[in-house]
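Q: Okay, next protein. This is Epoxide hydrolase from Sorangium cellulosum. I've checked the sequence twice, so it should be correct. Can you predict the 3D structure?
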Amino acid sequence: MTLDESRLSHRFTERGGVRLHYVEAGEGPLVVLLHGFPELWYSWRHQIPALVEAGYRVIAPDMRGYNLSDKPAGVAAYAIDELTADVAALIQAAGAERAAAVVGHDWGGGVAWAFAMRYPALLERLAILNCPHPARLLAAFRTARQLRKSWYMFFFQLPKLPELLAQRNDYALFRASVQEDPRRPGAVTDEDLARYLEAWSRPGALTATINYYRAAFRPSSMRDMGKSPRIDTPVLVIWGEHDRYLGSELAAPDPELVPNARVTRIPDASHFVHYDRPERVNQLLLEFLR
């Protein structure tokens, strides 16, 4: 399904002095789509029209630090408490009559997991695309296999060097991630890529987005990852099995922590499962949200 941008409204809301950009479309129950790294709201170009057509109101923000949203200085501005509070502010600003469904991919999935733990009253359903539950990820960091896959997370802890390398050769590292990782030919066209390049090149964007990883690896954040309250909300995990960043064994959350979870694996999809198999992802989301 093709995204008709004339049907989208571009809006801003503010929380704690940080202005957040989001697109909105449709009418009905609220669905919030949280993108991952290194993406932007446009990453949901295949899901937005399908959800709107099915009778949902969709909000897809640029997460703080990305694209048209503000890029506050300092690592602390990207702590998980700040990121989840942004999602709460978006839902409250929308004036929804009931709790929202939240869908997150990659880093957006990490924020969505944390949001479910911190703001259960605002959440009706939770869908996660290729992002492990925090407790699963923390345990995986004790294995050599996942440490090899997560090398870039540790590299991002260095000051300045990651930003310098990321922007070399017209953002070659990021381009390789979003355009070469997907297994479906043409999943990210040159026209699509231009949207990403525009977002990456905005002043302060590289440091802001990498600061997500720096904030996550602070000792207090790592301790919080080990303290995972139970999530009773219905949860759908969609997992592309050809994920070069995360082992497929991380897909299923601990049933004691997430008792109402269902995992659907897509064997011919990458980490960017919603790029590779958009129709299948849309089908799964719509079945889950009904």
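A: Here is a summary of the prediction. The first helix runs from residue 47 to 53. The beta strands are 9-15, 18-25, 30-34, 57-61, 100-105, 123-129, 235-242, 261-270.
Q: Noted. On to the next one.
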